[in-house]
């Protein structure tokens, strides 16, 4: 098997996550929304050596209340939902000319286009208006549509959701594949109370849902009406919010201390972890510890933080992504050669073996499509929690979230979803 990533089925050629654009040609939409793509969008293929395991069931938490999970293996975990967003100083606001939206339909004929548009619920008049703008695109064996602005604004949330999730399966539809997304029940949770009524009114009709996630993909459409400066910067900050969790550990049964040290001390860290866990036992039932202190050194440094991009980072193939994060989990210092998708795949192939149950701290969880093209990887922590970086740009933080929630985050793959688990051979 070739170690080079394979192209996604709907891409005209192998794709890589775009590099950070040069300062003179940055565009706000490209810079602040691309980070929401999966950590590795090259379509790395595991066919021939990876078998998918069943995805363990995990109930979605419907309300932002703390939950607990108890196990003799890892102790009692209390999970408290929180929301983080990037510092305003990290969000660039630059003027640029508006770009007319274009929708790409790879491997679609002119006749097939109308059927696709009808299938998502668009009415006959809207289908006719869109097909009238369609142009053949031989490079993608498909067509490209230039949708009228009033048609985009007028779509119902249900139709928008079906259409945009369909468009989002192709990296050619950048805005839809990299749509802003947020896990929550109401727009207030996402946008907060301090957004101006004018901006809120522009955004609300354009938000669509998939399961427990809200999506927004039309920043380009409303940017001109908002203008630049603080209002747009504040909006982008809110749109980039991510739901994560604070997790604390309590030890209810002191006789299980050795088992807990065994679990949390993986990677040659048992002597470091034991004093912390002993202190919890000595303190009694009321004592707890944030599990951040129980993670390997690099994960401790990264969790809940945003990358600080240096000039040296701009010369690398790409910035830190999900593969770099997962494969460096037990390393004190990161191996930046893993920014190369081919090297990352080679490391996973040669240094890990497949597991199916009894997951341990540090196991890698790989999410792939039916062709075993990986679109995201994360690190198993405990219960249904994973350590993850859902994007490769500086505005994508490292977080802890329930594993099941990643399905909603990558909603474009909900009907094409496989999960596999891997463990390092040398631990």
Structure characterization notes:
There is one protein chain. By secondary structure, the chain is an alpha+beta fold. 31% of the residues lie in helices and 20% in strands. The strands form four sheets. Strands 1, 12, 13, 14, 15, 16 and 17 form a seven-stranded antiparallel sheet that branches. Strand 15 (385-389) and strand 16 form a beta hairpin. 40% of the residues are buried.
Roughly how many Å apart are the termini? 26 Å
Please give the largest β-sheet.
Answer: 7 strands, antiparallel
Class based on secondary structure composition and strand pairing: alpha+beta
> How large is the count of helical segments?
17
What fraction strand? 15-25%
Q: What is the gist of this entry?
A:
The chain is built from 17 helices and 17 strands. It has 427 residues and is an alpha+beta fold. The model is unreliable at 1-43 and 45-63 (pLDDT under 50).
Question: Key terms for this structure?
Answer:
alpha+beta, 17 helices, 427 residues, disordered N terminus, four-stranded antiparallel sheet, seven-stranded antiparallel sheet
Topology at a glance:
Layout: H1 28-33, E1 44-45, E2 67-71, E3 75-84, E4 103-105, H2 110-119, H3 124-133, E5 135-137, E6 142-145, H4 149-154, H5 157-167, H6 174-177, E7 180-183, H7 187-191, H8 197-203, E8 208-210, E9 213-216, H9 219-226, H10 230-239, E10 242-250, H11 257-264, H12 270-283, E11 289-290, H13 297-302, H14 311-314, H15 322-327, H16 341-351, E12 352-355, E13 364-368, E14 373-382, E15 385-389, E16 398-402, H17 405-409, E17 418-424
Antiparallel strand pairs: 1-14, 2-3, 3-10, 4-6, 5-6, 7-9, 8-9, 10-11, 12-17, 13-14, 13-17, 14-15, 15-16
Helix pairs in contact: 2-3, 11-12
